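A brief tutorial aside. Many learners find it easier to grasp structure tokens once they have seen a single protein encoded end to end. The record that follows does exactly this for Glycoside hydrolase family 5 protein. Read the sequence first, then the structure, and try to relate runs of similar tokens to stretches of the chain.
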Amino acid sequence: MKLQLNKYILSILISISSLACSDNETPETTNQNLPEDENPVADTSIDIPGTIRDISSTTLVAEMGIGWNLGNSLDVENADKTAWGNPLPSQAIIDKVYEMGFRTLRVPITWGYDQQSTAPYTVNEDFMTQVQETVNYGISKDMHVIIDVHHDNAWLRPTTEDAPAAKERLASLWTQIANRFKSYGDKLIFETLNENRLLNSPEEWSGGTEEGRTILNEYHQTALNAIRATGGNNLGRHVMISTYAASTTPAAMDGLVLPEDDHLIVSLHTYFPWPFTGQEDGTANWGTDEERAQLENEFDYIREKWIVQQGRPVILGEWGAIDRDNTSTREAYMQFYVEQSLARGLLPIVWDDGGNFRLLDRSNLEWHFPTLAETIIEASN
């Protein structure tokens, strides 16, 4: 069902602003003006009610269009969400993304700088409204929209020692998010965690330890329980669940134990091969027969593990390649990536951070690399 904003809702959608720090820092939670004993009453005046259809997550992912990430925006590790150089989200930005042909919008969100660090872990009302307005920018274009818990790794440490307090706070966070969006239809998808991992550990990007993977599974279950407990449309909402650090390493893939639930989507990130796509001192070259075969093998591995063996759909929530003054090579890579992932039933959502992975100049509403964006859209068609 196509959802449209009425004139009243359009009149109250506003632009937003932000700031930053590093993934290794502990959030300085903003506690001012937050009630100590109860959550603030949600402002439902900008809700866009919808329907949760009786369809499988596989069917939902199959109908979703090629995706784009609003990276380094609401996920900035600071209460100022412009600190990493991007303007606040706006309808004009999402309109530009939609006009290019993207049909899925992923909105990464870091909550810790706008959430109390002690019980009842209340989220700042202004920030929650900002998140809701950003979701509405996509829903108003009839896009599928994904929201997550992104750079909150400092307090979501996957260790036995940290788990009790982290679970309590995570449950409160997802209860507040789920209640805020309870009336939204299945165009809105929740992603319980992003690249959750133990920061600066030796196994940070190689799949973690057995302890870390076990605690991560418990965090996913905690978040899912909180979402389902809010009832309404959230009883059947489709939810994305990620491996350790969203990695496709064998340890991470084998260590993910999905909760028993009919509406789950596996969430993975695959910047493959990293020396070409993101490594600081990497290579600008890619495209030999061997390199193409290696990327196909990566996709085959993902498909076999989740779609074939477990019957679960997969969203590649982040992928891309940084600029090394090699636009033609990146065009070839992006075309191949999109074609081969979609051919295997994997939905790719390109990472755009406004920096090294930039595609869209959000300040001037012009594409930095229009041929790259066009290549992605053409390949998806």
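Self-check: Confidence is low (pLDDT under 50) at residues 1-44. If you spotted this yourself, you are ready for the next section.
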